[in-house]
């Protein structure tokens, strides 16, 4: 089974959030129809899984990811603000994957 994960969405009630929720629900229905495993995690759950603190910032998450994957250290600091923002988002995505994988491994082990 193939797994796909993303951060849960939490936004106020406005037009953009309604469209985003429609998009998320469509992804869920496609995943179900195609028999894909879909994992949805809130941002604070990912941060708690990675840093041990659900209120950790992007820089804290980035440091923890670099501690686990030292080859990413070159991307931790940058000379340009846009690069820094880009790599923090990349570290967030990596953290999401690590958290989802660790949850999947725990779930698989508990079933055996």
Instruction: Work out the strand percent.
Output: 5-15%
Taking the sheet with the most strands, its summary is: 2 strands, parallel
Number of helices: 4
- Quaternary organisation of the protein chains: single chain
The chain-level structural class is: mainly alpha
What this model shows, in words?
This protein has 112 residues and is mainly alpha-helical. It has two domains: 1-41, no CATH class; 42-112, no CATH class. It has four helices and two strands, in the order E-H-E-H-H-H. The chain has helices at 15-33, 43-51, 58-68, 81-111, and strands at 3-7, 37-41. Helix 1 (15-33) links the parallel strand 1 and strand 2. It starts with a strand and ends with a helix. The model has no long low-confidence stretch (mean pLDDT 84).
Annotate the secondary structure layout.
Layout: E1 3-7, H1 15-33, E2 37-41, H2 43-51, H3 58-68, H4 81-111
Parallel strand pairs: 1-2
Helix pairs in contact: 2-4, 3-4
What is the gist of this entry?
With 112 residues, the chain is mainly α. The chain is built from four helices and two strands.
Keywords for this structure?
112 residues; mainly alpha; 2 domains; two-stranded parallel ribbon; 4 helices; 62% helix; globular
